[in-house]
Design a protein that fits this description.
The complex is a heterodimer.
Chain A (H helix, E strand, L loop, with lengths): L2 H13 L8 H14 L4 H10 L7 H9 L5 H54 L3 E5 L5 E4 L1 H7 L21 H12 L5 E9 L5 E12 L5 E10 L1 H15 L9 H11 L5 E8 L2 H8 L1 H22 L2 E6 L2 E7 L3 H13 L2 E3 L2 E3 L3 E7 L7 H17 L5 E3 L2 H22 L4 E8 L6 E9 L5 H11 L2 H23 L5 E8 L2 H21 L6 E6 L4 E7 L4
Parallel strand pairs in A: 11-12, 14-15
Antiparallel strand pairs in A: 1-2, 1-5, 3-4, 4-5, 6-8, 6-11, 7-8, 9-10, 13-14, 15-17, 16-17
Chain B lengths: L18 H8 L7 H13 L3 H21 L4 E5 L9 H8 L4 E6 L2 H11 L5 E5 L5 H10 L10 E5 L11 H11 L5 E7 L5 H12 L10 H7 L3 E3 L5 E2 L18 E8 L1
Parallel strand pairs in B: 1-2, 1-4, 2-3, 4-5
Antiparallel strand pairs in B: 5-8, 6-8, 7-8
Helix pairs in contact in B: 1-2, 2-8, 3-4
Classes of the chains: A alpha+beta, B alpha/beta.
Chain lengths: 552, 267
């Protein structure tokens, strides 16, 4: 076989055993040169093969396969052993090279580490947060000066070797140890907590702390890092704020909000009794002697009731201007009422004014456990209203039945303005007969709402302050109706009687004059042409205005 | 405190195998450690043809570089270049035209240090230590190297690299970022493992690499086509390694080549 053909076969054999970064033609030329050189110097051919990178696991076998028919075994043996030697040297060179690379890489990493270490030290030293790095034995490996300052030590180094957890309040230790364990075991990435530290001088410090895990190069947990923020000031402020939110600033007693939550909480346990106290005639003190005196008086009352509440292990609150609430447990109502009145009855001198004090009290005794605090407060308030209605220094027990009735009425009264707005109130005209002759004397204008009679409607309107506008509206509408009748029937138009407000004591005092003032112009404006508008008071409860349409 | 404190982890660990040194070993190189060789043996058990695949992949890289140079490319960005080994891009390219610039990109510390050693005396080649899946960082550093002029066509090379890019790293967006950074007429050479060829062996390789620092994500031909969005594939398209513009007659079995190769031209 000719050498070029042999070189081509060799090239094909080699390129399928190793990657030689040359073109086929180039490789073939190199191998042809090698073939020429081989009989003289198989060693240099071996070196060339290795430098060509014909160094695959099967490269030598492929070479022998191709060359063995043409060349003698001793020559090929020399080639093989030189090839092995060159491979060894090549491997050493490469290992040397990679070692240098490793060293360089390590140096670079270390440089980077030094920089990041320097950065870390900067953060560590200048941080406003205390930072501690602890081993899993809980001992500080490193701590910064800020942390030392928080716990009352000179410098961070004073902390090294000490148990971080020993600086925490004894009550917190177990929980903290559990949290650290969870972080270490990977159950949580980090924990944040608000805890109390005990300084070296035994002063407590509130801190916010966050702890997480530092892993080593293999990703194994190695240390805890704990950040500590001193929040004592913040904590005090927060507590102050909490107190202000839940307490009355004048008397320092709980406020309504706070009292409600206490009631809510009390409902599950021993039977409770609620007392809703309203000071009698307190507005007289406020108006007569001034608000300062009133405030002083309220403090005195708070003080006295507070003492009583303390003795009875009761919960006391100021829930309104002159209203207090007390919750007792497993209580005797009558004796407590006496104790309250006795406490208040002691002569009270404020700014040289001797003031007599008493209270009206609404009581809700042993409510069912399913009642809500809001409901109980409302019931106690209702009972207080009843007590007040009876006079001073009275008390009333909440009566659920009476309460239901009142509530129905109040609910109706509350919905009246809306109903009027929506035109649900009607005016009906009923004929008025002479009882003896059955002769129709005229018509009576009456209000009608829902199932309620005219009188009930007016009474409700009275209680909501709507009687005046509704009365005026009734007059206006009725007069307009009268005018229409006059236009239609002339002299035969019926006399129209307008039933105005129910004569409750209050309206009797204030309403008639104002009604009188407003009625005449209304009648004129509506053109019923009456020259005689007169007021007649029927015996009973209703004041009536009569528009006579007859010409004078 | 100037000395290093005990809890700071060491930054370099040669006890862990790396894909770059595994590749070197499969190519018959000596730039590797016992851990790399152990992993390589497992790799070979799963894919007995691994040495050939490594050789074919390296040969594809050479052919792709020379193809691009034939088409006027004189600056290359070699993404995930790994350990400098036989037939490095700058050697191949500068042999064809000494005035060719090459920027290698890798983030493995030893590969980077090694490349720096090799390239110390070559002003036209450099290595930047960046993660190729973060194109913005790579492109910034490549621009600062002064070796790549992004107004002229660039040969972007990713040979045997994308199978280390997880779907979470959004390979389409990665390729698109490089595509958008280079002008029309630039080329992308791409090769990566596929499950289309020898699916069983591929599954075995994935299993072997799962526990290493470099888990592998083979892709189908269709998926690879998707990565060439905005490129025009040059003949013969996406094919097993030995079928991409072979030199002379091919004697390697394409069905056992494990890796698809393709070159695209930016349009």
């Amino acid at each position: 076989m000719e050498l070029p053909e042999l070189a081509a076969r060799w090239m094909h054999a080699l390129t399928s055993t190793a990657y030689i970064p040359l073109s086929h033609a180039e490789i073939q030329q190199v191998l042809l040169d090698a073939l020429v050189e081989l009989p003289e110097s198989p060693e240099s051919v071996a070196t060339r093969l290795v430098s060509l990178h014909a160094t695959g696991p099967d490269s030598l076998r492929a070479t022998i396969d191709v060359l063995s028919p043409k060349f003698e075994l001793p020559l090929l043996a020399r080639l093989s052993s030189a090839y092995a030697h060159a491979m060894r040297l090549d491997a050493f060179d490469q290992q040397e090279q990679i070692k240098v690379a490793i060293v360089r890489a390590k140096q670079r990493v270390e440089r980077t580490l030094k920089v990041s270490q320097a950065r870390f030290q900067e953060v560590f030293a200048s941080s406003a947060l205390g930072i501690a790095i602890t081993g899993f034995d809980g001992k500080c490996v490193e701590a910064n000066d800020t942390l030392a300052e928080i716990v009352g030590l000179e410098s961070g180094t004073d902390l090294i070797g000490r148990q971080l957890i020993d600086f925490f309040h004894p009550e917190d230790k177990t929980a903290l140890a559990a949290s650290y364990r969870q972080v270490r075991e990977g159950q949580v990435d980090r924990f944040r907590d608000q805890r109390k530290l005990i300084r070296e001088d035994e002063e407590p410090v509130w801190v916010y702390l966050a702890a997480s895990l530092v892993r080593d190069a293999d990703g194994e947990p190695a240390h805890h890092v704990t950040m500590v923020e001193d929040i004592s000031d913040l904590h005090l402020l927060q507590r102050n704020l909490d107190h202000q939110l839940l307490h009355d600033s004048l008397t320092g007693l709980s406020n309504r909000q706070h009292f409600m939550t206490r009631v809510e909480r009390g409902l599950g346990g021993d039977p409770i009794t609620l007392y809703h106290l309203g000071l009698d005639a307190f507005s007289v003190v406020n108006n007569g002697l001034g608000h300062d005196t009133g405030d002083k008086l309220l403090k005195i009352v708070a003080n006295r009731l507070g003492k009583l509440a303390g003795e009875k292990k009761a919960v006391l609150a100021r829930i309104g201007g002159d209203e207090f609430a007390m919750m007792t447990f497993s209580d005797n109502v009558t004796s407590t009422i006496e104790e309250i009145q006795d406490a208040l009855a002691e002569p009270t001198f404020v700014d040289d004014h001797g003031i007599a004090l008493s209270a009206s009290i609404g009581v809700v005794d042993r409510p069912p456990a399913f009642a809500t605090a809001a409901e109980l407060m409302r019931c106690a308030n209702a009972a207080l209203r009843q007590a007040k209605a009876r006079g001073k220094r009275q008390w009333a027990l909440h009566d659920p039945h009476d309460d239901a009735r009142r509530r129905g009425k109040y609910a109706l009264a509350a919905s009246m303005p809306g109903a009027w707005e929506h035109g649900e109130l009607e005016i009906v005209y009923a004929p008025a007969h002479d009882l003896e002759t059955r002769e129709v004397l005229g018509a009576v204008a009456r209000l009608h709402w829902d199932d309620l009679s005219h009188n009930d409607t007016m009474a409700l309107a009275d209680s909501t302050g709507l009687s005046l506008p509704i009365g005026r509206w009734l007059l206006r509408e009725a007069c307009a109706q009268a005018a229409r009748w006059v236009a239609e029937f002339g002299d035969r138009a019926p006399a129209l009687h307008i039933a105005l407000g129910a004569c409750s004591p209050a309206t009797r005092i204030s309403s008639p004059t104002s009604s009188e003032r407003s009625t005449r112009p209304v009648c004129r404006r509506n053109g019923c042409g009456s020259r005689s508008t007169s007021r007649r008071c029927w015996p009973g409860t209703t004041t009536r205005w009569c528009c006579t349409t007859a010409a004078s | 405190m100037s000395e290093r404190v005990s809890w700071v982890p060491e930054g370099l660990d040669t006890g862990k195998p790396s894909a770059a040194r595994l590749y070197d070993y499969l190519l018959g190189g000596g730039h590797n450690f016992a851990a790399d060789r152990t992993l390589a043996e497992k790799f070979l058990q799963a894919q007995p043809n691994a040495r050939t695949i490594a050789r074919l992949n390296r040969a594809f890289l050479r052919r792709a570089v020379l193809f691009m140079m034939d088409n006027g490319i004189r600056q290359f960005l070699d993404l995930g270049s790994g350990i400098p080994t036989v037939g490095n891009v700058h050697e191949i390219a500068q042999k064809a035209d000494p005035e060719t610039n090459v920027v290698y990109v890798d983030f493995e510390e030893v590969a980077v240090a090694h490349s720096q050693l090799i390239l110390e005396n070559d002003p036209r080649a450099t290595i930047i230590e960046e993660d190729m899946t973060r194109p913005a960082d790579v492109l910034k550093a490549a621009g600062e190297s002064d070796l790549i002029d992004f107004t002229r066509p660039v040969g972007v090379l990713t040979a045997g690299v994308f199978h280390f890019v997880s779907p979470e790293a959004d390979p389409r967006a990665v390729v698109a970022a490089y595509r958008d950074a280079v002008p029309e007429g630039s080329y992308l050479a791409f090769s990566q493992f596929t499950q289309d060829l020898q699916p069983e062996e591929m599954a075995g390789v994935v299993e072997v690499m799962k526990k290493s620092q470099n888990p592998m994500f083979p892709r189908t031909k269709t998926e690879i086509e998707g990565l060439f969005d905005g490129f025009e594939l040059v003949e013969p398209g996406i094919v097993p390694l030995p079928l991409w513009r072979p030199e002379g007659t091919n004697t390697d079995d394409p069905d056992k080549a494990g890796i698809y190769a393709a070159v695209g031209r930016k349009i």
